[in-house]
Amino acid sequence: MTRHTTLLAIRGLALFGALTLSLVGCNNKASTDIKFAPYGTTYQSKPDFAEIEQQYPLTPEAVAKLTPEILVGLDQEQVDQIYARLTAGPIPDGAFDGGLFFPKGASGQRRLTEILGGLPGLAAELKTTKLELLGKTLWKGKVFYREKRLLRNRIEDTVLLKPLIDGDLNTIEKINVGGKEAWLLFPAKLYCGQSLLDARRESIIIDYAYSDELPGYRERPDFLAGRHGLMVRDEIRMVRPGFYLGRAYAGKAFLLSFTLYNKEIAERDGPAFMKTGQVKQDCWTGTQSAMANK
Amino acid sequence: MKPAIYFGAIGATALLVLITVFSTSEVAISAPTVEVAAIASASLTVQGAGSPAGYDEKSFNAAAVALSDSERVGREIWYKSTAGNARFHAYTLPQRVGVYADWYRVLNAKERNDRFRAWGLMNDPSCCTPGSPGCPAKSLDETYGFDWCPGDEELLKFVGKDGYRDPACDLKDAPYIAAVHGAKDERQSPCDLAFGTSTGALGLRKFPNPRFDAEIWRKANGALESWEGWRKRLPRQNATGKLAQVADDALEPPFLIGQACGACHISFDPLNPPADPTHPRWDNLKGAIGNQYLRMSEILGSGMPVNSLEWQVFAHARPGTTDTSAIPTDQVNNPGTMNAIINFKQRPTFSGERVVKWRGAKSCASGAPAATCWCEPGRTEKCWQREEQVENVHHILKGGEDSIGIREAVQRVYFNIGSCSEACWVNHLTDMRQLDPNARNFGQTPFNIGQCRRDCPNFRAIEDRLGNIVEFLVSKENYNTDLHVARDIERKKKSSGAKYDYKDLVADLEKEFGKGAVTRGQEVFAQTCARCHSSISESEGGPFKNRDFRALDPKTGLRADWMGNDQATKVSEVGTYRCRALHSNHMTGHVYQEYGSETLRARPSDPAVREEGGGGRGYYRNISLLSAWAHAPFMHNNAIGPELCGKPANKANDFDRPRYVDASGALLAKDKQPACWAYDPSVEGRFKLFKESVRQLLSPDQRLPKITLFDEDVTIDIGPKILDGDGDRELRGFSVVLPAGSKVASLGNFLHKRFIDDMVLSKLRPSELQARLVKQYGEKDGKEIAGLLSRTADTALKNPKELVSAVKREPRLLDIYSSCTATVENGGHTFGQDLPDADKKALTAFLSTL
User: Fold this and answer.
1) In this structure, what are the phi and psi dihedrals at residue B764, rounded to the nearest 5 degrees?
2) A164 — contact with chain B (CB < 8 Å)?
């Protein structure tokens, strides 16, 4: 492991602020039964979320068919329209597998490529999935400690990160999920707070800003996500029990979307949700009388 | 060039303009003139009824004894109703907008006596410092360090708990009127008015935070009364030392703070000012006069470090002004006054205006789309229909915006102060960090009043009582305040048999300004000022030279002339600081589109203004000169006249900053800066300030120019950061430093998104960019600008840190990409400058009588 490689790895994390693991490939085109309000390319043409929710409320049946793979295949406006119609649901508990994907424009290409793809020397780099692969390699998901309002990230036990971690590596807490062991790093606070996309109801916030106050904090590498580093802030809403859709920001600038999935919870609580469409809400659900409050 | 660096470079300016929203209503209303003796008598009566030791609601209610039921309800809403905006201040403003208020710094009980001097807030006469004699709370722990106020005996039980029953639920509504309220009394529950209890500062209301955890609070702060852990700057800062613990959104404070209209509008009664401004009584206060001392911008930014961009760009407004388009930002930096609401029944209206809005209806046609007709579920004959009609409307805001009706103008105030933010309008604001023109929130979109009515119960609660609020605004509490009446009351306080009337005032003015000054002043006024500052035109009321400007309207008993015609004047003709006239939030496609009339938006742009116009921009309405003696300094930004300051004991809260500059725009040396004038709400203090402000107004050549400049270096972090170096803990992105002395407006008005997009375009599709610029600026200039952008992009790509200096080296770029390039804040309005000195004095004397 060279220093250069290590720095490259961290750059990947830092650039995308994504302390999440990619379980899915990219550019999959998958279909969904979910209806979307018509929209154009410009920001002015994007319909109001309140009206989308009023005219195209999500049904339990529709979200039951959603998968991480389907979400990856959607363009960003479609992802946004789904996210806005979700509620925060219960603050999760336990280990979740994660997947990340980047904003795509209407052309199906990454939005970054659409904007800057013509810059000399940049196109090739933008087309690569190197950074996504890097995220997939390092990042396995998140572990929620609901009662403590604490979260930690599952990081692959690989040589890649070792030079950047302080102290005795044996003292780092580990977790075994599905027979795979991972380090627990990058702690964060959990609370209900403002969505930076849709203000109409709260999201569950995963906030790394003051992670140095949390148990298990290790200056290196955890500072990277905190207020001395990239100021990462994630927000998630529940698609259905055990399945959350998230958005990652650095310094309040949107970077990417991610999914979190816990099969056990999905199988345990999914059937009841399908019957009623109801789920415990830990966060403020807003005042629009649509799916959120029914 | 690495992509990350490139993004850093083009994103550099993305963080330059982070927006705060400083709310104030800009409704300017007025009410009738009544007999001078009656005003004095009423004032004295209320004075007697108020009890300075009454820590209950009795004194507040006693001050409304002369009002009708409807006016009383309107008053109570004006003073107390937040319409649910506590969530805006607690969550939306910090988390979504990125601006942190340090409410403990503003409202802690220990500094109650410094609150007015520091923040310009009016202390609530019914509140007390825990532990003080007679105060129901005995320790600061009981109130979490805040004042104790009426209703807290109940509210404090619910800190950290659900189930609080808002005092608004007990509002005794005005009687139901079928003609107004419909077939049944189906007004939205008054609970949704959301009163909470006073914070100790009038208009700022507190609510128990159900998420508060006493154990976590004690651990973070040491004691319940302390907020030090919540507030402290941590030993280890972020890269630029700017992040405060206030920014830890996970730590929930005991209270959520909301704001009523009164926060910006309640102030001292010019007729009956308090002996001690820190301890006013209810009869020393007026609800809608406009708080000329308030530092709302500093209050809302009080949790931001002084070297942050947000503080330096927005927390600079003069006392009594605030930038109401700071949160719903249009990137036009334009603080304006909280208008005095005086004699509104006499205020001019304009007929024949095309107004698209929702109007009450009994039913909707079958199949009518909800976008044009909608009935409130569960209500009888309570429907709303949206269509265009020709109406007679007021022109309310500085440029005449809010022009679809007086009720709607009041309604919009609630959005300005944060109400229904989450349900209705935050999703329609610009995200200053969003640089992708295809992405949501790249720019504003209009919010939908119909959707807001449907989804926000607080909106409906206010809407159902707008009539009460308007009636309060035109009530006796908001009549003109004449100088001779103020002096009469002052004298009566010293000797009950004393008397001072209009004739006495004229005599005193003539002693000061010369024999016959008032009469001569009226002639000068008729010749020089009345064409704008009379609401009764010569065609309607006869020649100005024969006019009695103080004549009463027999229908209302008020002064017939509102002393301002409210007509829109091209900003180049007025010549005052033009940025406010370029305000764009009411344009088509912008956030407040639905509060502007089609007639407003059809106004032609001012050809003498260099910046982009159209869509209704480029105008100011003039102001009413009623009670002008009590409302200096002048102009929409309070810039003509002395600078005012509070001189608080806590110097950390002293926000006065030098603004006088030399001809080159550089700040004058400290010893050359004219001293600020300390707040003095006394009758003679107001009059002294008025006279000096008029002197400066009429003698523009003697005005020292004022420009607001950064008083600290500002380091702007550019994101996203990357780790890209030899040091394995070294985060690089880069920062740019804007030095103290930079012009606030230049930064606040800089259209960074347009600039960045064009720089990118100059590299990706240069011919497309050039074609657009040629079309816009002509062949020669268009090509030059395109080249300039390309070279600037090259500089940014090569060395991102050079971007700001590269822009500075090319003033033309600042011009092209600024919404407003004006810098001197106290120029213009040169009318009367050529008058002989004697006439200027005479005019001052006459204006003193209005």
Assistant:
1) -90, -50
2) yes
List, in sequence order, the alpha helices (H) in chain A.
3-16, 49-55, 60-64, 68-73, 76-84, 111-116, 123-127, 130-138, 219-222, 263-276
Q: Quick check: B723 and A14 CB within 8 A?
A: yes
CA distance A224 to A238: 27
pLDDT of B701 > 70? The answer is yes
Neighbours of A177 (CB within 10 A): 16
pLDDT band at A292 (very low <50, low <70, confident <90, very high): very low
Task: Reduce the DSSP state of residue A144 to 3 states and report it.
Answer: strand
Between chains, do B720 and A230 touch, taking CB under 8 Å as contact?
yes
Domain of A17, in residue numbers: 3-293
Chain B residue numbers touching A46 (CB-CB < 8 A) = 440, 445
Contact assessment for residue B639 and residue B700, using Cβ atoms and an 8 Å cutoff: no
CB B290 within 8 A of CB B319: no
pLDDT at residue B242 is higher than 90: no
- Which residues have a Cβ under 8 Å from the Cβ of B526 and sit 6 or more positions away? B543, B544, B545, B547
Instruction: Work out how many domains chain A is built from and give that number.
Output: 1
Report DSSP letters for B238-277, one per residue: -TTS---GGG-TTS--SEEEEE-THHHH-EE-TTS--SST
Amino acid at A89: G
DSSP E strand boundaries for B419-477: none
Q: Give the torsion sign (CA, B265, B483, B681, B638).
A: positive
Residue of A227, A283, A285 to mutate, interface with B, max B Cβ within 10 Å: A227
CA B721 to chain centre: 36
Contact B91 A200 (CB under 8 A): no
Is the pLDDT at A240 greater than 90? The verdict is yes
DSSP E strand stretches across B423-506: none
Of A207, A286, A289, the CB nearest to B249: A207
Three-state secondary-structure class, residue A36 = coil
The per-residue DSSP string of A230-260 comes to T-EEEEEEEEETTEEEEEEEETTEEEEEEEE
> Between B45 and A102, where is the model more confident?
A102
State how far residue B237 is from chain A, nearest Cα, in angstroms: 7
Are the beta carbons of B728 and A3 separated by less than 8 Å?
yes
Q: Over the stretch B47-104, which tens digit does the pLDDT of each residue have?
A: 333 334 578 899 899 989 999 999 999 999 999 999 999 999 999 999 999 899 999 9
Contact B433/A253, CB-based, under 8 Å? yes
Tell me the nearest-neighbour CA distance from B12 into chain A, angstroms.
13
Residues 6+ apart with CB under 8 A from B50: B59, B62, B63, B125, B281, B282, B283
Q: Which candidate in A8, A43, A110 is best for mutational testing of the B interface (most B CBs within 10 A)? A: A43
- Over residues B768-792, the mean pLDDT reads 92
Residue of A287, A291, A294 to mutate for B, most B C-beta atoms under 10 A: A287
| Helix intervals (H) in B496-627 | 502-513, 517-528, 530-533, 538-541, 571-574, 598-601
Identify the weakest region by mean pLDDT among A123-137, B549-563, B571-585. Answer: A123-137
Residues of A in contact with B456 (CB under 8 A): 287
CA angle B332, B338, B340 (to 5 degrees): 140
Q: Do A255 and B731 touch (CB under 8 A)?
A: no
Closest CA to A263 of A34, A94, A26, A149: A94
DSSP letter (8 states) at residue B626: T
Q: Looking at the partner chain, which of B421, B720, B725 has a beta carbon nearest the beta carbon of A199? A: B421
Closest chain A residue to B760, measured at CA: A116
Residues whose CB is less than 8 angstroms from the CB of residue A232 and which lie 6 or more positions away in sequence, other chains included: A17, A19, A188, A208, A225, A226, A248, A249, A250
Residues B552-559 have a mean pLDDT of 96
